[in-house]
Specification:
Distance between the termini: 51 Å
Number of domains: 1
Order of helices and strands: HHH
Helix content: over 70%
Strand content: under 5%
Number of helices: 3
Shape: globular
Length: 70
């Protein structure tokens, strides 16, 4: 049951990221906390969620250079 509840919580966070992209950094932290809950309970983290987290982190790294002069 905990596994499904965590997945549902992650789905809600992802919806919020889509609705409020300006708050993405705060919501990403919530996503990391949910992933930590999976680990704390000894549950496997779904591969698609790990991949999404990695993509969001990559987007953050790309944003660092958006205002750099060329």
């Amino acid at each position: 049951m905990a596994f499904e509840q965590l997945k549902a919580g992650i789905a809600l966070i992802l919806e919020e990221i889509e609705k409020r992209p300006e708050d993405r950094h705060v919501l990403q932290e919530e996503l990391r906390e949910k992933i930590a809950e999976f680990h704390a309970l000894g549950l496997p983290v779904p591969e698609d969620i790990l991949r999404l987290e990695s993509e969001l982190e990559q987007d953050d790294a790309d944003d660092i250079f958006d205002n750099m002069p060329v």
